[in-house]
Design a protein that fits this description.
single chain; alpha/beta; Alpha/beta knot; 2 domains; globular
Length: about 190
Amino acid sequence: MLENAKKYIDFFYFYHYFLWTIFLKRKRFTFQFVMKLKVLWPGRTRNREIRSLEEHYLNKINQLGKCQLIQVKEAKGINEKFASRIKEIEALELEKRLKDDYIICLFDRGKEMSSLEFARFLEKTASSSGRFITFIVGGFLGLDERLLKRADFLLSLSRMTFSHELSRAVLLEQIYRSLTIIKGRHYAK
């Protein structure tokens, strides 16, 4: 029995040494998780230049990982004075796309982060949760309170006010920047 244990230990050390020298030292084998991202917002972006920026960053993101952009139906034909009704309709459409996702809502009173902090946050969240990380950007009136309460995290892009369409492009750029930081790639500052 002692002889079998020695053989097992010898094989164990040989196997780990083999993995270390062949794969890890030559960087042919890396441990990487797949970050699953979704970005949701009501309606399509009307501004052509901003829509072009969104497409540009979405393509760059998808070269580094997987990201789905989902534009749900926006509330139309309702006067702006019925803001709560508009937000409720849009929230219902957004909620249809949520399952067991880790939800990050953009909110003006959310937590602000530097790009490096955001990258570390995304990396930690993706590796620990194993769920889709879903960003929700509100329409021109913002998000319904129900969605904000359901969120796992509230994120603010800045204390400044951006249009909801510009916020979309800024978010996609920051996701791309974060993925380049996580993957160790160079990205202009």
